Amino acid sequence: MILGAVIIVAVLIVLYVVVYSPQAGQRGDLNARLSRAQIFLPSLTNQKNDLENNLSQAQSLLSTSEAQFPQAMTSIEYGEDFFRVAYGHDLYSMADGCGVQLTSLTASPPADEQVGAVTYSVSSFTVVVSGDINSVLKFIDAIGTQIDYQLAWAFQLPWSVDVKSVSVTVDGSTTINLDIYAYKG
């Protein structure tokens, strides 16, 4: 019986060393890691709150900025067509080809216009250029006929331009109001 008791005690000691001892070491490591995490938790919580405040301020600023530029957002596809016409050329190169400097471009959001059975998407643009009168007239003609005189190409897009009005100021700048009609298909 004593021999059996010694074997049982020996088996229990071996099981303790093999099973419980490593778990006790892991438990101590986990307790130490938990203590370190609890030390960093308040500073990380403050940092998270600061970042959330920065995010809300940035979103507020973005909303304010977007409210200032609604036209650019809603008419972007027509602005891109107008700026990046055939083969990567743009309105600026057309202005250069005519000898004028493009100083401003504003656009209205596109609106649908029914003409007979056809629906067009219409965007209004105001283009301000500066240069001598002959160059300005050449530029207006280039917009109206959709031809770039310098680069010898025409717009290849499914839309047309209607020059609505032109006003020349004393300082030499010219404001051109035009509508772009795009076929909606």
Q: Low-confidence stretches at least 5 residues in length (pLDDT < 50)?
A: 69-80, 83-89, 148-157
Question: What is the number of independent domains?
Answer: 2
- Fill in the CATH topology of the largest domain: Alpha-Beta Plaits
SSE order in H/E notation?
HHHHEEEHEEEE
CATH top level label of the largest domain: Alpha Beta
Give me the Rg, rounded: 37 Å
Number of distinct helices? 5
Helix/sheet category: alpha+beta
CATH H-level superfamily title of the largest domain: Ribosomal protein S6/Translation elongation factor EF1B
N- to C-terminal distance: 101 Å
Mean pLDDT: 76
Beta-strand residue percentage: 25-35%
Query: How would a textbook summarize the main sheet?
Result: 5 strands, antiparallel
CATH architecture of the largest domain: 2-Layer Sandwich
Provide a descriptive summary of the structure in words.
- The chain is an alpha+beta fold and 185 residues long.
- It has 2 domains: 68 residues; 111 residues, Alpha-Beta Plaits.
- It contains 5 helices and 7 strands, in the order H-H-H-H-E-E-E-H-E-E-E-E.
- Strands 1, 2, 3, 6 and 7 form a 5-stranded antiparallel sheet that branches. It has a two-stranded antiparallel sheet with strand order 4-5.
- Helix 4 crosses helix 5.
- It is rod-shaped, with a radius of gyration of 37 Å.
- The protein starts with a helix and ends with a strand.
- About 16% of the residues have low confidence.
Give a brief description.
This protein is of the alpha+beta class and 185 residues long. 55% of the residues lie in helices and 27% in strands.
